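Supplementary Note 3. Input sequence used for the single-chain structure prediction.
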Amino acid sequence: EFGLDYALLNRMEMAYKVVEALEKVLGKNLKYELWINKNHNHAVYEKGYFIHRKGATPAKKGEKGVIPGNMRDGSFLVEGKGNSKFLNSSSHGAGRSMSRKDARKKFTMPQFKNSMKGIKGNISKNILDEIPMAYKDIFKVMEAQKSSVKVIKHIKPIINWKG
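The predicted structure, written as discrete structure tokens, is reproduced below.
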């Protein structure tokens, strides 16, 4: 579990640095009530079994989570329902509908720019494979897993930056 703990702590440190930078730029302290920091694509030992979540994340009863869509359609804050039929799990996100290679072949920069109208970010040839159309429809994904999670809030991006 060292690797999982390392990943959690690494993301937490990055989040603190972002908050610190925003506070410096905005000139005020930011208040936040909830940190959601979850692993996905992992195996953990739970109740006498190894649970392997590939493209999935924990969704135990009352457990908060984030389910990302794509750069345009946003993400969902959710609360797990503890559905044992699905091993107390939910999808980690929309998932790709095509490979990165196929997306780079199929789509153009004008299509990418058009799909991201109204959202600021680093829309460049280097991340053409992140075009929203290369992903499954997050709204259909959320509908399909409503027995696993309750949607708390849909978060629509204003700025999206891929490093």
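The CA atoms of residues 113 and 150 lie 32 Å apart. The longest strand covers residues 149-155.
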